[in-house]
Structures are given as structure tokens and as C-alpha cells.
Amino acid sequence: MSLIHTLKVDLGDRSYPIYIGDKLLAQASLLGKHIKGHSALIVSNTAVAPLYLASVQQSLDAHNIRHDSLILDDGEQYKTIASVERIIDTLLQRRHDRQTTLVALGGGVVGDIAGFAASIYQRGVHYVQIPTTLLSQVDSSVGGKTGVNHALGKNMIGAFYQPQCVIADTSTLDTLPARELSAGLAEVIKYGLIRHAEFFEWLELNIQKLIDRNQEALCEAIRVSCVCKAEVVAIDEREAGIRAILNLGHTFGHAIESTMGYGNWLHGEAVAAGMVMAADLSERHQWVDKKVKQRTIALLEQSSLPIKSPSEMTPDQYMNAMAIDKKTVEGKIKLVLLKNLGEAFVTADYNPELLEQTLKYC
Which domains are delineated in the chain? Predict the structure, then answer.
């Protein structure tokens, strides 16, 4: 049996564990003990289901839990209300009651859609996260953000709704396409930039091991990332304050995703370019020295991630997209910027001329 790292997201009576380890899907008891009722709906997608659906079904069978499955199309472009409606339709057609549990088997898109459906079906049912991408294991599966995209903005429809547990099986990363692995590394690098300078330095020394899918290195990177996120979420569950630092690069990145068309740039790729922009704007304000941006760019380049935003995007397109970002308050676009390596802050008090320079030259 593989070593399991168990962390806790501390939210009082809504606290839950995060399990991190190799071959966790083979351990039926891990999932079974978090299914509260006697039925479940597994929500997956066309890329993940052929690989891992049978393992989840076997775990549910071992605990005599009646289960159905729904396979969604794969891709950010399917993160829509229409996909949520498909889940609700299936739940009703298969007569799932308020004691059912949704099991999200897939990456961040599946987790966000299934979590949102769980939050609204019969005013809320339980759900479990089984993230199968690096990005979802270190970020989207933890913290209870659920939702779907709107044509005018990313994640504009959703709810804060916590899962019963997160099961991050690192062996699922063996089948992850290289581009998806790199996209996940963007979120890993983010934690070093916003909260954990020592972790950033560890990444500089171990990035090749992560790219090579060394299980020990992956487990450590996922563990530290989840610790960072769990600590922040425990302080600020609904993003009224410090939790917003988890969005470093995301305001710029979401603008790229919505402008270029969902799915053309992977979320992690857009965030990577956005983090360079955040570091650049921070340097232009002389809040950080140029070495922070240089080290950020170097680590992203080693991870095969973009360090430049789309050449066809104009400053006006960025500003129009960012104006409807969720952090925008009373017309002021709030950005997550850097004070130092490992220290981020949220502000609307930046020089608009310097922002325009960043948008133009990055």
C-alpha cells in the first residue's frame, strides 16, 4: 500500500480531508467512507472515463452503493450551464434523492461543474472530488469554488460549496498529456510566488523531476501546494480578503481565455502569461526587483509554459475583459501583485499608465 499524505481543510463542521498518494483509486475504502447515502452519480469526461471510471465503480460496488455515470465532453468550452443541466437531468431521471453523492472524476472542469450541480440539486447534496490532472490536484479541487463560464467572463456563475473529501491519486498523472502537466505546474509555481519563497527555490531545483513525473517529487509538490491553499481557505473561505492572493496572474489569464476563446489557451497557460504580467507590473512600480521577474520567467520557461501573452490581444481587449472580473469593485480592477518573492497582495492602487505598459509589452 502506498504512503498517503492526509491534510485537512479546517472549516469547522465543514472541514474535510485531502488524500495525496500513489494508486489511491485502488483503495476502495478511501472513497466508500465518504459516501454518506446509498447512491452516487459519477461525473467524468470522455478523456478520463475510459481510464479510471471502472476503478471508481468497483469502489462503490464494494460498499453496495448504487451508482450511475454521466460522461461529459472534454474541454473548457463545455464548462457551461448546459453541462450542469445534463447532470440535473440525469439525477432526476435516475431518481437520485437528497441523500445522493456526486463523484467528480476528472480535471478542474469536471470538478467545477459537478460541484456546482451538487450545490443546487435539491438545494444541496454531497460531492467528492477525485482530481486527475495536476492543476486540479493542487488547486481547483481544494477550497470549494464551483461554477461554470459565461460567454462574457470565466467562472461568472457558481457557488462556494465544499466537498466531503479530495482524493488526489498521483498515479493518474502518468496518463496526463505533457501540455496538461505543464499547465498544472503554473499553479504549483504560483504558490511559491505568493506565499512560500522556500518552495519556489525547491521548484527551481526540482522542476525537471516534476516534468519527468517522479512520484516522490510530484507528491511533495502537491502536498505543499495543498497545504498553502488549505491554510488560506481556512482563513478566508469566501474570498473576502486574503484568499484573493490565490488569483495571482488570473485576472490577466482569464482575460486571455475569454478573449481567445475557451480551450484555445489552457487555464494554466493563460495563468503563466498572467503571472509574468503581474511580476512585470510589480517591477514597474519598484515593488520587487527585476530578479523576481527573471526567476519567474526562467521557471515558467523550464516548465514549457508561455511567458508572453497572445500577440493579437490589445490593451483595450484586456481592459474590457478585466472590467468584469470578479475582483472588480465599483469599477476598480483589483490585481494580485508581488511585494517580494513569496509575498503577494491585492490592490487597486496602481499606476494605470504602468498597467498599460505591461499590457502593451508583455
Answer: 4-175 (3.40.50.1970), 178-361 (1.20.1090.10)
